[in-house]
Design brief:
The chain is of the alpha+beta class and about 650 residues long. Helices cover about 40% and strands about 25% of the residues. Helix 10 (about 250-285) runs antiparallel to helix 11 and helix 10 packs parallel to helix 15 (about 415-440).
Length: about 650
């Protein structure tokens, strides 16, 4: 029996790609593909053979330009010609620009062949309605039944005369195909929506051109979004004017566009936040006190327009919790009430977690955050907080407190924003530490703190008790990974035996004998947990550290305006067996020496000063040398030539400071 069904003509495609035509199209009889390699060739062909191309399929990167330039030229001459990007070199920015310039569709070259064919057919089918407003009903059925879009023929009263649906669109229909024919829009949609559609049909018939409407509809597949394009059919049916309505499902496209928009908004916000934080960091340069640093940070954040208010508190202690140092952008009392409600929880709270784990806590949405209790939620809502972040203020192993920032919108603190705030917390900690050290260096008076420990599990205390000997700290050198080289003199025991014993201790990262005189000498130690390092991190200068037959006694100097209680609490939180046995204000008797060291230390780089200290304490300048340059270099984790370079530069600056007086 002969097949009298009408033959669907091939879709005429112009492929613009120097790597050749897309295989899924070139090998399918439903497509007739002409291929060119450049923008110039494509424009020449379109100019010479206008009307013979149904769709342009173009790569983004082309030998003489790019696909965006080709798209703009095509749109100038043929605004309704379907244009599909099929690219292996695109990205979100290119996709967004292409759609904004009028591309019909945008696909990666990795797309499934069937999907590519369907998308090209869909582009041609929809645009056919736009360009051929006098298309016959038979011709429309012939095309739309081949393409995966929904199409309807409706008369001026909103009555369905025909439903034309391609394969795979059953789940996108509001009502079954056979049920629609003969019914009116008012029978299918709510009154308000049906009236909106009727007005759109009237507009199409009045203008005699293609009109577009975007709308959502309840389907068997759920709520879907459609782009409806209508055009007069040109042939009255039963004495009434008729339109063709092609409904393209744009749900996925809208989701993609929304994600792109959200991504762009997030990047723009992040850029502005980074600029804000950079400005804050610049403003910290030259700060002379911790109070000034904290006030600057809080005020800049609160006045930025991004956040509601900000506060900084002292380090967490088990006995006193946290005390507010500074609040900007809100009244102090309600913020204190919120902090009290948080730290007063019997179970673990966010602030203690930030300090103990040195990790930020983000509350993305106050309304449904499971980590806060109802009292906290109530206080946060009263303050107008929609989201919040708590950031540790740290330098090295020292926690100087917590920075809290309140946001006015839910989801204000993305992962990238959180990273930026982590960096801010570290820089603020560095600035506070620098101010403390500067105060200690330039002041004539200081507070001397003496600590005593006779029972802890510190490695040197255990070793001095085991070997019945005495250790005394001779000097320290900071190295990478927040570690400290400690040069310790030994009296009453063999340095070699001590190092052998220390190497089996898990707290000892590295150990080396510098000098060995039998029952005395000098050893080099790197400890994973060091009481000396802890005190230095807390902004003090360790004057003496003696471990004698199981008794550890440390004397450290703090600036006169330092919060001694904060220092002691922070130190004892790491070493609870240690007691504060002395606190006294002392006058600096080495002012002349310090005045000499200040300009010199300012001339040396950190690496030069580190190399110089390591060489000095390791006995490199003794005769004969206690340590070679190679041994000093190995202790610092650098090469021997690098150590020589740093030492020579440092020595030259020291001699210049002395001889050029």
């Amino acid at each position: 029996m002969p097949d009298n069904r009408p033959t669907v003509p091939s879709v005429r495609v112009l492929a613009v790609d120097e790597s050749g035509p897309p295989a899924p199209l070139a090998t399918d009889d439903k497509f007739s593909v002409t291929t060119v390699e450049s923008v110039e060739c494509a424009l020449d062909l379109l100019a010479d053979d206008a009307g013979t191309i149904d769709c342009v399929v173009s790569e983004y990167e082309l030998p003489d330009s790019d696909g965006i330039e080709l798209l703009e030229s095509v749109r100038d001459d043929q605004p309704n010609l379907p244009f599909v990007f099929l690219t292996g070199a695109g990205n979100e920015r290119v996709a967004s620009e292409a759609i904004g310039k009028g591309a019909t569709d945008y696909l990666p070259k990795s797309v499934d062949g069937e999907e590519l064919r369907n998308r090209v057919q869909r582009a041609v089918a929809t645009t056919t309605v736009e360009s051929d407003s006098g298309l016959s009903g038979d011709r429309m059925r012939e095309l739309t039944t081949a393409f995966p879009d929904l199409a309807f023929i409706l008369d001026e009263t909103g009555r369905y005369l025909e439903v034309l649906s391609g394969p795979g669109t059953d789940s996108l229909q509001t009502v079954g195909q056979q049920e629609l024919v003969g019914r009116n829009l008012q029978d299918v949609f709510p009154e308000e929506r049906a009236e909106q559609f009727l007005e759109h049909i009237e507009l199409t018939l009045e203008t005699g051109s293609v009109e577009t409407l975007e709308y959502d509809a309840e389907t068997t597949a759920g709520i879907r979004w459609y782009e409806g394009r209508t055009a007069p059919l040109g042939e009255p049916i039963d004495g009434r004017d008729v339109v063709v309505w092609v409904a393209r499902d744009v749900t996925d496209r809208r989701a993609d566009e929304r994600r792109l928009a959200e991504h762009r908004d997030e990047l723009a916000t992040l850029s502005r936040v980074n600029d804000l934080i950079n400005n804050i960091l610049q403003s910290l340069v030259g700060s002379t006190s911790r109070e000034e640093i904290e006030a600057t940070v809080c005020e800049r954040l609160a006045n930025s327009g991004f956040y509601q208010f900000a506060w900084v508190g002292t380090p967490w202690t088990d006995t006193d919790g946290i005390r507010l140092n500074c609040v900007a952008g809100a009244e102090r009392d309600p913020v204190e009430s919120l902090v009290e409600a948080t730290t007063g929880r019997e179970e673990g709270n966010s602030i203690s977690y930030v300090v103990e784990e040195n990790d930020p806590v983000v509350v993305s949405n106050v309304e449904d955050e499971p980590r806060i209790n109802e009292r906290e939620r109530e206080l946060m809502v009263e303050l107008g907080i929609a989201s919040a972040i708590l950031v540790p203020v740290t330098y090295g192993n020292t926690n100087f407190g917590v920075l809290g920032v309140a946001g006015t919108r839910a989801g204000a603190f993305s992962d990238r924003e959180r990273t930026a705030f982590e960096a801010l917390g570290e820089i603020v900690g560095f600035a506070i530490n620098a101010v403390k050290n500067r105060q200690l260096l330039h002041t004539d008076t200081s507070v001397e703190l003496e600590f005593l420990d006779t029972t802890s599990d510190k490695p040197l205390r255990r070793l001095s008790e085991e070997f019945d000997c005495r250790f005394e700290l001779q000097g320290t050198v900071p190295i990478a990974d927040d570690l400290l080289i400690e040069y310790v003199s030994v009296e009453g025991a063999s340095p070699e035996k001590l190092v052998q014993r220390a190497s089996s201790d898990s707290s000892v990262e590295e150990s080396r004998v510098v000098t060995d005189d039998g029952d005395s000498g000098l050893v080099e130690l790197v400890l994973s947990s060091s009481d000396v390092h802890r005190l230095i991190d807390l902004g003090t200068a360790v004057k003496t550290a003696v471990t004698d037959h199981g008794e550890v006694r440390l004397v450290a100097e703090a600036p006169p305006d330092a919060d001694v209680r904060e220092i002691v609490d922070a130190y004892r939180s790491a070493y609870p067996d240690t007691e504060l046995v002395g606190k006294r204000e002392v006058t600096d008797t080495e002012r002349t020496s310090r005045e000499y060291h200040r300009p010199l230390s300012e001339k040396l780089t950190d690496k030069q000063l580190t190399a110089l200290r390591a060489a000095y304490f390791a006995g490199y300048y003794e005769y004969p040398r206690d340590s070679t340059a190679q041994e000093v270099a190995e202790s610092l984790g650098v090469s021997s030539p690098t150590v020589h370079q740093h030492l020579q530069a440092a020595e030259r600056k020291m001699l210049s400071s002395y001889l050029d007086q």
